[in-house]
Amino acid sequence: MAGRLTRLSRGETTIDFYGRRKVGFIVSGLLVVITIASLFLQGLNLGIDFKGGVAFEVPATGTLTVETAEKILTTEKIDAATAKIQILSTGNTERIRIQLGDLSAETVTKIQTALAKESKATVNDVSVSTVSSTWGWNITKKSITALLVFFAVVSLFISLRFEWGMAVSAIAAMAHDVAISVGVYSVFGLEVTPATVVAFLTILGFSLYDTIVVFDKVHENDERFSGSKVSYGDIVNVSMNQVLMRSLITSIAAVLPVFSLLVLGAGVLGAVALREFALALLVGLITGVYSSIYIASPLLGMLKERSAKYRSMRGQLSLKSDMAHLMATGAPLGRRASARAASDTEKSAVSPAAPVEAILSHPPRPRKKSRR
């Protein structure tokens, strides 16, 4: 165990990431299919900022509970099943938040008065927030536009800094991260708010950072192995093993504070806004690390193997000791040399050392006697 950790910290592991790319593609494909099915069947639970509506917040007392709030809605001929009722905790105080669709001004006033009466508070203690559906649609369009602009700028930057193949792979990985994150929100019915959108854009930046770290090492090793007969699959494998420890440390350092924010901020302190933001971040960070290993890098390898430079070496991978030799020397061991080394190792392990007379093809010639 200690030896493995040492090799991991030094970037000397020999994990065949590229050879196992099909497993990652299958897992991602299944998750994307589940996302699409969930979006068609139940869609997204959009918050009031996107679909519009009215939100009431009132101090929670012994007389005002979730059940009494539902009775008030039923009295006003509003289906309580369509309402979203939450209990918000802040220290020792609690408030009840009720989110509804578009309502007339008269209905809003009636509900506000009934909530104040039931909670034994004044009407001014019941806050009312109204968002029009038009404003929510504008927010949705701006979010989509920001996402598309982000993709375009990132593609241009990576194409100029590296090459177009890396740009395509990075965009595919980020689209994968967004799809999986949206799928999680759709499957579990989590509310999508502006904070969620901000978190999505944040995780795209993290996913791009982790992918660029791998691509920078791939670009460096591509130049390093340019004079050797090395397949692009080997270049991807070597690069990913060399930056594996860095990716893990970065990911753990990012996940821990987000997890604390989710547990302490949302769970203990009851900050719902923090829960929405932290949950999206947590899902995105995990998918971002996964996609940089099993989506972006394998896609890049598959694209590059089609080029004239690497087409003849397609499918050739240096594994285990061969990969270690490649990482250490910068040159492949070769199939013949690898087979010969393995054969010599096997023979030396099975048969004892032969005497010198058996190794020589003929006995030594006798020395001539010198004349005196």
Give your account of this protein's structure:
This protein has 14 helices and six strands. The chain folds into two domains: 14-44 and 135-313, Multidrug efflux transporter AcrB transmembrane domain (Multidrug efflux transporter AcrB transmembrane fold, Up-down Bundle), CATH 1.20.1640; 53-131, Alpha-Beta Plaits (2-Layer Sandwich), CATH 3.30.70.2040. Strands 3-4-2-5 form a four-stranded antiparallel β-sheet. It has a two-stranded parallel ribbon with strand order 1-6. It is elongated and about 120 Å long. It has helices at 2-10, 21-41, 48-51, 66-75, 105-118, 133-161, 164-187, 194-224, 232-242, 244-268, 272-304, 321-329, 335-350, 356-359; strands at 45-46, 53-59, 84-90, 93-100, 127-131, 191-192. It starts with a helix and ends in a 13-residue tail after the last helix. It is of the alpha+beta class. Helix 4 (66-75) packs antiparallel against helix 5 and helix 7 (164-187) packs antiparallel against helix 11. A hairpin with a 2-residue loop joins strand 3 and strand 4 (93-100).
Residue-averaged pLDDT: 78
Low-confidence parts: 336-361
What structural class do you assign from the helix and strand content? alpha+beta
Task: Tell me the series of helices and strands, N- to C-terminal.
Answer: HHEHEHEEHEHHEHHHHHHH
Strand order of the largest sheet: 3-4-2-5
Radius of gyration: 31 Å
Helix content: 55-70%
CATH topology of the largest domain: Multidrug efflux transporter AcrB transmembrane fold
Q: Which oligomeric form is depicted?
A: single chain
Q: How would a textbook summarize the main sheet?
A: 4 strands, antiparallel
Inertia-based shape: elongated
β-strand percent reads 5-15%
What is the number of E strands? 6
Work out the helix count.
Answer: 14
Domain Protein export membrane protein SecD/SecF C-terminal: 115-305
Pfam families: Sec_GG, SecD_SecF_C
Protein name: Protein translocase subunit SecF
GO cellular component, one term: plasma membrane
